[in-house]
Protein: glutathione transferase
Organism: Halcyon senegalensis
Amino acid sequence: MPGKPKLHYFNGRGRMESIRWLLAAAGVEFEESFLETKDDLTKLQKDGSLMFQQVPMVEIDGMKMVQTRAILGYIAAKYNLYGKDLKERALIDMYVEAIIDLNELLMTHAFQPADKKEQHLATIVDKATNRYFPVYEKVLKDHGQDFLVGNRFSRADVQLLETLLMAEECKPDILAKFPLLQSFKARISNIPTIKKFLQPGSQRKAPLQEKDVPKLMKIFH
């Protein structure tokens, strides 16, 4: 029996959080090794564990995988969360790439200087409600199924739910004009593996706080 996947990252969300979400959604138990200091990162770099000298890194199936999108693609394919054919996979990829664009904006909010925070939040809300959410609302309406692609659960559903919840942390009423996304959120949140991941005490990480930023800067800079 191969061991559990082992995730190497700091003890917070960042780019590893989508990987945690996808493993949890697939019902896969995983271990985490947290970077606490710059030395922890340097050790991984020096022992050849990091192909491009950076994390996230996931040990899985005898590989030390880096690059977030590559890791997510591997997990999705391995656990049958990547559609039934090439066309479905292409749709999933298109939806996911846009989700990642919005996710990156949300992720960097805590790092904004105080005088830029308000404008940054306004940008998030504008792009979420005018560019991204209307597309997913229309997809759900036109498709008429419980899931974004085909009629089966995929990585696109997992990653959209993660990002919807992050957007609500920034602005609790951000989904007010999107009834289908609201029902999608409720439906996907009730899938047993995801419901478990959303419970207190799971390996899901809390939002990054301003007080955490200096510690991260010491590890990565």
Remarks:
- The chain has a mean pLDDT of 95.
- Residues 14 and 108 are 9 Å apart (CA to CA).
- The domain at 86-190 is CATH 1.20.1050.10 (Glutathione S-transferase Yfyf (Class Pi); Chain A, domain 2).
